[in-house]
Structures are given as C-alpha cells and as structure tokens.
Amino acid sequence: MNIEMYRVTRELPGGQSGIWKVQKYTVTEKDEKFQRLRCAINPHREQRFVPAGEYTQLVKGGTIIMSDTPDEIYDQYPLLYAAHGNVLINGLGLGCTIKMCMSKPEVTHVTVVEIDPDVIRLTGDFWKQKYKDRLTIINADAFDYKPAKGSYFGAVWHDIWDNICGDNLPEMSKLHRRYGRMSTWQGSWGRILCKQGR
Q1: CA neighbours closer than 13 Å in the CB half-sphere of residue 84
Q2: Hey, how many other C-beta atoms are within 10 angstroms of the C-beta on 15?
Q3: 3-class DSSP assignment, residue 111
Q4: How confident is the model at residue 46 (pLDDT cuts 50, 70, 90)?
Q5: Are 97 and 188 within one domain?
C-alpha cells in the first residue's frame, strides 16, 4: 500500500483559524537516525519513528493533535479496508481519512461530523472544494448528531480524541452503540492500543 497517496502535505495549505493551525515541518535525516536509535536502545518502547521528509501537522493551542506521518496514516488503515458505499467519519482533522475513502471507487459518499467550526474552516473547506458533492461536512457533536431517518453506512470511523488513552474506551463504546444499527462496520482510532493501555 502506498502511504504517500493518503498524505496531505503536497496539497493542503497551511493556515490558522482560532486556536487551530495547519503547519508544515521537516524531519531531517539526523532526526530520523536519532529516532531509530531510541527504538533500538529501548525495545519496550513503541517502535514508531518518522522518516526524513516534509510533513503537515494539525496543532491546537500549541499541542500537536495529528500529522500525516506514515505511522499516523497507517493507524487509519482499518477504515481504508472497510470503506464502501456511504461512509461516516466522526472527526475531521487534516482530512487524511477523507482522502483515503475518496481513493476507493466503491465509496459513493463521505459524511464528516466535526464539532469545531475552526477545524472546518481550516481543512474542511479545502476538501469540500476538492470533492464537491461526494463530501458533506457537518458541524456537530458526534454524540448528538442524528443522521437522516433511514440512513445506513457501509463504514463508520470515530476519530475525535486528541490522544490514545484507556479513558477514551467508554466514549468509543458509546459511539459504537449509537451507530451500530446503521452501519455494516465501525472502528475507532487507537481502540486496540487503548485496551492494551488499560
């Protein structure tokens, strides 16, 4: 699988809206070597590192929420494999999951539910312009959003958390129950790691 297909660095512009920023950054070869060394020295540490290159990150008030690094793209692969028909994504972020879904001809439409209007202004408007009628972005809370009566989704993906933590599991379970009868498949970002962390 070509991870580069789903990265946003070459197209999504930088910018700021409210406390949110989309910004570019560089990982040097020296940075990559240092990260690889840390992984080698500590085999119990999660074996993740960022290869040298140019990347894009979403920052909230100085805290990095996500980026389009290979490992973070790989975290979204369950959705890539499951996506078909109408897809619902709770959480917009940089829009990497939108790009993944739109790469599949069997995906007919994507609906994204995002609680923060600044994130929509920063990244959502860009993707809406690119994908036109195949994409709907709704400013709402994933726990309150009510799809139209009779809606059914081939896949639903929940990615509304700033970090991976066992404390997210009750919310994940709540969302899976909420959308269970209207979807063929559901997944939540980091759910397996959250369970392991508990």
Answers
A1: 5
A2: 13
A3: strand
A4: low
A5: yes
| Burial bucket for residue 17 (CB in 10 Å: 0-12, 13-18, 19+) | middle
One domain, residues 49 and 126:
no
> Is residue 46 located within the same domain as residue 127?
no
Contact 114, 132 (CB under 8 A): no
**Averaged pLDDT for residues 44-68:** 87
**What is the residue whose two structure tokens read 């980091």?**
190
Per-residue pLDDT tens for 67-101?
Answer: 999 999 999 999 999 999 999 999 999 999 999 99
Asked if the model's pLDDT at residue 48 lies above 90, the reply is: no
| Residue 81 identity | Y
Residue 59 and residue 43 share a domain:
yes
Strand partners, 114: 139
Are 90 and 176 within one domain?
yes
Count the domains in the chain: 2
Q: In the structure, what pLDDT confidence band is assigned to residue 41 with cuts at 50, 70 and 90?
A: confident
Mean pLDDT (the chain, rounded): 92
pTM of the model: 0.90
In the chain, the amino acid numbered 94 is L
Which candidate, 115, 111, 100, 94, places its Cα nearest to that of 160?
A: 115
Task: Quote the domain boundaries for residue 38.
Answer: 3-67
